[in-house]
Amino acid sequence: MPSLFITGYGIEQATLKTDDLVQRLMECAYDSLDDKPQEVKLSAAIAPYIAREDRAMLTSQTICCLNVGFSAMKMAEKIVGFTLAEKEAMCVYTTYETVRDFHEVVWQFKTSSEQYTERAFLLKSLGVMANAVHPLRLFRKLPTNGLYHLSKLFGLRGGGYPLRKMSLGGLSLLEEAFYNLPCSGSSGALISAFGDMSKADNAQVFRKMGLIDVRNASRSNVQGTGGAVSLIVETPERISRQEAQPLAEVLQAFSRFSTSMFATRQDWIEAYGLLEPWVRESHPVVVLYDNGAPGIGDAEVQALESSLISFEIRRYKPWSKYAVATSGLVDLVCALADPTIEPGRVVIIHGEGASMGLGLIVLRKSGRSSPQSERTQS
Fold it and tell me: Which domain of life is it from (predicted)?
């Protein structure tokens, strides 16, 4: 049976950041409500390595993925670095959000009465529109934008592709790597997911479903945000050869397609029927997908009560909020950093995507602490 090892991660979502993730998780979740969107900036550590012509093609999602990808790579290489040959063979898997900058500018212009009446506002908006349709900006709309920049920055040439599966996207990237790496000549991969609930298309869909209130976020069922998350995964052969110290071992990864908007109790029960018997008997820690939409968390818990003898539950959305495609990977990273989950424990991560189905990732947390845990303990 295939397996992968996680050796590094990076996260920037809501108030969660790689360097102080453990500390944030130990604080009251509702102290993290004030995370208004801020201008996305390229990390000072990697800015000098991005060519001028490439900067013109960077999108906010690519910048976020570069930042968290750098954090993940730095963590993975802290003990044993990758050789140039290993990087040449490493794969890259990303999610992507469609860049609709022109449509968003038009939507903002249409919904603002001030810009129709004030000449200065009108001219400013027309200038923004003209900038949005500049020929060079067409490169920003390619779904491979993030893939290209991550590959170029880190020198990863082993192949890969962008994937879009709604909220299931992040976990599906790990599933792809889980089955593809053992069949390739690569010994590792960089996985990077991005999501943004503040984008007009995402926000309007959830508003029409009655799940968010764009005027008063505190009244929303789903607390939306934007963010990015990355993982470095390596094959057992490299871990053994280099005597690397992983954060966790991925033991199972699978998804089940469904056209339903939300997974039901029966959907989860059928998914748990596919797990190895020892997993169901291991008293696992289960990280729920529960994004706040009515009934979703209840269906998960009811299925667990029918499928497992005993288990513990974790919910990280009160800290991380919800950013669509990052959902499952952010939950996974939080579980790795969570000091209340002991090394050796089996952890099951839930993922779900509207009209995409659901997914499960089973991992065993390793003895190696994340760098943040080590600083917190000291």
Answer: Bacteria
